């Protein structure tokens, strides 16, 4: 009787797990608007790869990244970079991170943190959403920045998970001289809006 109960419990547990996986996959595939996908490309020899999704609706934008080859235990942030008119970038039609802070009075690029995690495995999903309205022909770049092992100090850990830790982007809000340039871009995906 005990053996039978264990088998029933095992089958029930397996069925519940499979149902959860199916529900998670269905949620990943949902997009009630324009769905764009792109490969996540490794930067700075990180080896980080994966897939990115941009879902554009009348209500706004949702972005997701499924990343692999992360370092377990390290902190990561996901950044949403928007270039409304790529012809106005420093190198017209070829926007880069430089366009998010040059010229300093009105840069073409606008960026903000969309998610952050401490990797509990070698792969993870980042996601974020906002009420953004994207122009036709604009460019969106999703970027993952690595921050190393999370600090035990609350203020320092907050900087790891809430800023890019790249002071040249705008100290002290985007990085501090005390920390130095700790944030390391490890992967990005880019989308050109139809």
Question: Can you walk through the features of this model?
Answer:
The chain is of the alpha+beta class. 19% of the residues lie in helices and 37% in strands. The chain contains two helices and eight strands; from the N terminus they run αβββββββαβ. The chain has an eight-stranded antiparallel β-sheet. It is globular, with a radius of gyration of 20 Å.
Question: Short description, anyone?
Answer:
The protein is α+β, with helices and mostly antiparallel strands and 194 residues long. Helix content is 19%, strand content 37%. The chain has helices spanning 2-29, 154-162, and strands at 34-42, 49-57, 60-68, 75-83, 109-118, 124-130, 139-148, 184-192.
Tell me the layout of helices and strands.
Blueprint: H1 2-29, E1 34-42, E2 49-57, E3 60-68, E4 75-83, E5 109-118, E6 124-130, E7 139-148, H2 154-162, E8 184-192
Antiparallel strand pairs: 1-2, 1-8, 2-3, 3-6, 4-5, 4-7, 7-8
The tally of beta strands, per DSSP, is: 8
CATH level-1 class of the largest domain: Mainly Beta
Q: N-to-C SSE series? A: HEEEEEEEHE
What is the beta-strand fraction? 35-45%
The number of domains: 2
Tags for this entry?
194 residues; alpha+beta; Immunoglobulin-like; 2 domains; 8-stranded antiparallel beta sheet; 2 helices; 8 strands; globular
